[in-house]
Amino acid sequence: MRRVVIDKGIPFLEGVFPSDWEVINLSPEEITRNNVHEADALFVRTRTQVNKGLLHGSNVRFVATATIGYDHIDQDYCYQAGIHWTSCPGCNAQAVCDYVEEAISSIKSDQIDSSPLTIGIVGYGHVGKLVAKMAERKGYRVLLSDPPLGIGISLEELAPQCDILTFHTPLARDGEHPTYHQCNADILRLCKPDALLINAARGGVIDEQALINHLQEQPSTLTAIDCWENEPNLNRTLLQMVDLASFHIAGYSIRGKMRASEMCLHAFCKFFSLPILSINKKVVPLHGDSESGWIRRISERLKTQPDDFEQLRKQYKLR
What we know:
The chain is an alpha/beta fold and 319 residues long. The chain has 13 helices and twelve strands. Helix 4 (93-107) packs across helix 6 (126-137). The model has no long low-confidence stretch (mean pLDDT 93).
């Protein structure tokens, strides 16, 4: 009998696998080398580091991450070990766009109707495109920066023009277009004094120490941070300084989770030459707050319970 290990935080997969597949649901902490050694397939989220330390000597030949991002997967190792991996590009793009819209509404409400706003979108992938459409619908002036795609202008040109600067890039530490600390002290100095900075991409895209220094010097700068360096160990100083703080849930919606599970399952079926299986839509997670002001309620909770970052994330009811 073949075996698939699944992060228990991935919904809609209960009872969908063929009878000749053993299904083991584990928490991220339980997805260890010993527990995946006999598995043929692995379904994970960002909390699992998929690398040699986890997979060396195992039977795993297929890994699916139910996330847009894949910086937690050691691509070189997987390639060398003959392990196929896949992610879910665009699965939760609408949810992230909704988060950005709510953040702007919460922080810039006094300016939305009084004057046209300029929004700078860094990264023009699935999320960036939706954010651009949302902003255009609201009458914002939209500027883009995505050097890998050859779209828009440089971040140095973009920053001084923007009332809102929002990041939607993967995290890349090297290569021709690294994004690690792309929003650094030099970029922050170029920003308008009352600009709103949003990070709903990856922790590390913004240099947190540089942002702390900037907020101390320029307290009128506004911030909404969903993704943090060193999660779940937050920089407490920055946490208390930002206007809105959330526990990496910008993309958490029922629609996004459903799409991610479906994409992982279809990729699994294709790899193992199985008929395409359908997710179990009857097992719908409890859904939570989507009323106006929900992002501020989340922020207050995290600021008063910073030690509970991971627990708050696990217990978050999908929008």
